[in-house]
Amino acid sequence: MRVIAGEFAGRKLVAPEGTTTRPTTDKVRQALFNSLTSMGVLDGAVVADLYAGSGALGIEAISRGADRCVFVERDRAALAALRQNISSLGLDDRCKVTSSDVMAWVPAMRNVDIAFIDPPYAFDAWPALLAIVDVGLVVAEADDPIDAPEGWEQLRSRRYGRTWVTTLQRLA
User: Fold this and answer.
1) In terms of DSSP H, where are the helices of the chain?
2) pTM to 2 decimals?
């Protein structure tokens, strides 16, 4: 696994051992970030990488122009890989790692522009999570497309193999 483009393009990232984490493939990250770049939303953004795993989504966002990232993860192996990736790229001053359950942490989230949400497959709490996420834009990765709940508009939903990436925008 590697950073696809931007400041850290080509740099390798480590993934946690085991099967509890499902890293986003290079192909999916490239398509996702090409879309966000064309929307012009990354430059200077503050992003949150929820269910962060290795941190590939948040790190890719920083590499492509985001200002900083908050990573939320509770799995110990994933946290070790995440911290190693942040350190090896020298991003300690632009990243905050929170060891917490996402649903418990999200109500305290402040001043975030974009949330990347990549929970384990078979996650079924999307309506509850989207009801408490206070951001303008959500990029959701799941095994099925995410329907836009009340208060949200679906901007894009694409399938890449067995992965669906859905971009939702909060309505004003």
Assistant:
1) 26-39, 56-63, 76-88, 102-105, 126-132
2) 0.95
Q: How many domains does the chain have?
A: 1
- Model confidence pLDDT, tens digit, residues 6-34: 999 999 999 987 666 777 888 899 999 99
Residues 33 and 31: their CA atoms lie apart, in Å, by 6
In angstroms, the CA 139 to CA 116 distance is 5
CATH number of the domain bearing residue 71: 3.40.50.150
**Residue for token digits 């305290």?**
108
Phi-psi label, residue 20: left if phi above 0, alpha if psi -120 to 50, beta otherwise: alpha
What are phi and psi for residue 30, nearest 5 degrees? -60, -45
Residues 6+ apart with CB under 8 A from 37: 64
Task: Tell me the per-residue pLDDT of 43-99, one tens digit each, with 9 for 90 and over.
Answer: 999 999 999 999 999 999 999 999 999 999 999 999 999 999 999 999 999 999 999
Q: Which domain holds residue 50?
A: 26-170
Please answer whether residues 68 and 95 qualify as being in contact, where contact means their C-beta atoms are separated by less than 8 angstroms.
yes
